[in-house]
Amino acid sequence: MWCSEWNICWVMHENPRKVFLAWDKACSNNKSKMWVLAFYVITWSIWLFCNEIVFNGKQWEMGQLFDLIKLRLALWGKARWPKISGKMEDLFRCPSLVSLPQQGRVRRQHVERVAPQDGWIKFNVNGEAQGNLGPVVIGGIMRDKDGCIPFKFSRALGIRDLSIAKILAIKEAFQIFVGLMENHVKLWVENDSLNVVS
């Protein structure tokens, strides 16, 4: 029923790992991201539906389950790709016709991590926010010259600006360093934000 929605012929394998690997390769056009997302939606929906049957005595209704899967796929797709073309109703009615916005590949610059010299402690820190202004988390890892990790931290800070999150991560590293280290050790802080560091 689901594969006919996408014009794909499918034979289900008994091994779940092989099912997932085959599922991932079954649709290779620009709609493949929605197809891959559908695997998780279907799995989650069947699991929830089976729990309803076992624990609440619900009757098996294939049509209802199919509609729940399509609705969840539309909701999750719209949440994952906000700029997705089409309305929510279109996503629900025919998810296979949805086209996702084309995105160029972002090339990440490879950064070599360098161990600190003798007499130094290095703190790799970062702060992240959901969006430019959103829920913020900060974290850091302290390393010595041998690569040992004497301390690490992570915590949530509520709603903040992304740049503030990165600054607060550096501040936290300084406070931990002052509380833990002796006077003769120097601190090296590494962060991925040029705006914060400069």
Structure, explained:
This is RNase H type-1 domain-containing protein. The chain crosses the membrane at residues 34-55. Keywords: Membrane, Transmembrane, Transmembrane helix. The protein has 198 residues and is an alpha+beta fold. It folds into two domains: 2-97, no CATH class; 120-197, Ribonuclease H-like superfamily/Ribonuclease H (Nucleotidyltransferase, domain 5). Helix content is 44%, strand content 19%. It is built from seven helices and four strands; from the N terminus they run αααααβββαβα. The protein has a four-stranded mixed β-sheet with strand order 3-2-1-4. Helix 2 (16-26) packs antiparallel against helix 3 (32-56) and helix 3 (32-56) crosses helix 4. The protein is elongated and about 70 Å long. The mean pLDDT is 78.
Provide the descriptors you would attach to this structure in a database record:
single chain, 4 strands, 2 domains, elongated, Nucleotidyltransferase, domain 5, transmembrane, four-stranded mixed beta sheet, alpha+beta, 7 helices, 198 residues
Summarize the structure.
By secondary structure, the chain is an alpha+beta fold.
